[in-house]
Specification:
CATH class: Alpha Beta
CATH superfamily: Response regulator
Number of helices: 5
Radius of gyration: 14 Å
Number of domains: 1
Largest sheet: 5 strands, parallel
Length: about 140
């Protein structure tokens, strides 16, 4: 039986950050889709049902906190792990991310090893949930 390839949605308004994260995860045989703003992110979540979401906080149109809250309120998507990515490393920002429903919080700039470890730690949890809902 062929194992499904996990899909990670990377949401960041910086094309550079999206590309770096994408290349890093693809080296680990992880399928990556990207979005540059909140509305595109929500569309991608509905269309692709990713195993995990890497979500920047400061985005055009809608910030990452709001996106996280919307996803958590939706029964179909609420169990997808969401890892917040931010240049803000204060305790208040991390707590706000947790209150919005994030699973974990990574501060930019992040180490590629730390990124991969964090994604692998949570991606299969998201895939199991997705497969249970389909089956």
């Amino acid at each position: 039986m062929i194992e499904p390839v996990p899909t990670v949605l990377v949401v960041d308004d910086s094309p550079t950050v999206r590309k770096i994260v994408q290349m890093t995860l693809q080296r680990e045989q992880i399928r990556v889709i990207t979005a540059g703003d909140g509305l595109s992110a929500l569309t991608s979540v509905a269309d692709e049902m990713p195993a995990l979401i890497l979500l920047d906080i400061q985005l055009p149109r809608m910030d990452g906190y709001h996106i996280c809250q919307i996803i958590r309120k939706n029964l179909q998507f609420r169990t997808i792990p969401i890892i917040m990515l931010s240049g803000k490393d204060g305790l208040f920002d991390k707590m706000r991310g947790r209150l919005a429903g994030s699973t974990e919080y990574l501060t930019k700039p992040f180490d590629s090893v730390e990124l991969v470890q964090t994604v692998k730690k949570h991606q299969y949890e998201g895939m199991r949930t997705r497969l249970r809902r389909r089956g």
